[in-house]
Amino acid sequence: MPQLLISVRSSIEATAAIAGGCDVLDIKEPQNGPLGMASADVIAQIFSQIPPEHSDILKSVALGELHDWPADRRPDSILSQANILKVGPGNNEQIVDWIQSLKALIHRFQHQQILTDQFIAVIYADSPLGQLILSQTAEDQQELFQNLRAFGCTGLLIDTQHKTVGCLTKHATETQLLQFCNHCQQTNLTSALAGSLQLEEVTKLINSGINPNYFGFRSAACVSGIRTDEIDVKRVGHLKRSLS
To answer: How far apart are CA 104 and CA 107, in angstroms?
Structure first.
């Protein structure tokens, strides 16, 4: 059964997401991009205000894009408290360049003792790189996923970069998403799907046998369904019940 990931930008939103029953509390700042990173102060504040009775909730942090991490940028120590770190592909349009940049960042975090249970790579279905990966043959995609797992990437999230040009299912077919989730499972990678998904699309995907480890939401969990509004506890609760 897929778990519920809710992206929040403040401690107030985090409280609503937790009360609504989210399984993964994902911290990001939507105004900074699809995977915009929140400030270290915001991350620390949210972590510190998670109630003791919810200490088992998974804490996720968006790191932005690979190009946001030049060689001289040091990660803040607060990131070591996260269970999940995820980073976007940046400007990379070719698989080999993306792998090289991702591998370097993961190894840098490991070297600087920013260790986490899961380091998830994000690809955008509405980008050239995302389309390359989604359109690979079964054999090539499985080989790619095995390569990612070998150097410390523990999961993959398919998202969308541009939030005004349609949700995930406008850019990826059910066949592609099914193959993606199956190959993640076969190569011991965590799988996640997001990208302006509404409950109607998610229900259809599940009914088609597509069962990632996580479904990620922001807009569907916000007041009026607008991603820049605040998270609404009732909407989160409805999403949670629908995935149960």
So the answer is: 5
